[in-house]
Amino acid sequence: MTGVPVLLDAGALTIRRGRRTVLSGVALTVDPGRAIHVAGANGSGKTSLLRVLAGLAAPRAGTLRRHAACAFVPEKVRLAPALRCGEWLRAMRALRGLTATDWAAAASVSGLDPAVLDRPAATLSRGMLQRVALLEAFQSGCPLLLLDEPFSGLDDDGREWLAAQVAERLDAGAAVLLTDHSGSAAGRVALTDVLRLRDGAAHRAAVQRAATPRTIAAPDATVTVRATHPDGRTFGRTLAAAESDDLLRALLGAGWHVDEVRR
Question: Which one of 60, 73, 183, 246 has the lowest number of neighbouring Cβ atoms within 10 Å?
Fold first, then answer.
């Protein structure tokens, strides 16, 4: 993506849902290599904003320019019930103007049984459908990834695969905007920015690395981290001490309050 200094820029966006204005005056610039957490309470406009940025809905006012191809994965993936997943993946590949790829091999690497590709969408669980859609997005090579609650329907193995795929795309110069109501991205994704939606406006801030508290422990020790979010969510995880700094950094950057760090 050499020569593409900005992947997306938006100015003074007004976004409505039905008759209600959910966001106004949204200004956003997305550079390569950025991982932006779109945060906010339920109903704050997170999904509405991602849909507008993806071109699936039009803003009521403002400007929006995408300077690179994007892939959008919704929170709830819906395919025609009788459509086989492999057929959908091949069709999406063709629509993007890309050459054929070995979807069976790609599915296997993602942790999916390749046999899933021959099954109708109606027979797949929510998590399987979500992983199929995420697989398509990552294989598309799109420089801009818009992911709505990508961790929510996945098991632990799926979340680790997702985090690894996001890291790989970021290293390649892509940008990722994601929502994460579950808190599963904390400690898994190296977030660079938080775009907080509140009271109909968007407030962007860089993730502050220097302010992250450090936890010192023996290499084989574990640490339990508990945190609360202003919107009422709670978070708790026990993990290796060596991984705790990244988790704390991600929590603080996403607006969480760390209540306890216990060895």
Answer: 60
**230 in Cβ contact with 199 (< 8 Å):** no
Secondary structure of residue 75 in the 3-state scheme: coil
Cα distance between residue 73 and residue 71, in whole Å: 7
Name residues of the chain where pLDDT drops below 70: 1-4, 208-220, 242, 244-246, 248-249, 251-263
Predicted local distance difference test score (pLDDT) of residue 263? 65
DSSP character for 56? S
Judge contact between 54 and 69, C-beta under 8 A: no
Q: Residue 9 and residue 126: Cα distance in Å, rounded? A: 32
64 Cβ contact partners less than 8 Å away, ≥ 6 residues apart: 8, 9, 10, 13, 52, 53
Instruction: Give me the pLDDT at residue 245, please.
Output: 67
What is the distance between the alpha carbons of residues 35 and 177, in angstroms, rounded to a whole number? 6
- Measured at the alpha carbon of residue 153, what is the angle toward residues 150 and 155, in degrees to the nearest 5? 105
SS3 content of the chain, % helix, strand, coil (to 5): 30, 30, 40
233 in helix, strand or coil? coil
Q: Give the per-residue pLDDT at 82.
A: 96
Cα 190 from chain centre: 11
User: 197 near 220, Cβ under 8 Å?
Assistant: no
Cβ-Cβ contacts under 8 Å for 13 (sequence gap 6 or more):
23, 24, 25, 26, 27, 28, 49, 52, 59, 61, 62, 63, 64
Question: What Cα–Cα distance (Å) separates residue 49 from each residue in 129, 175, 255?
Answer: 23, 16, 19
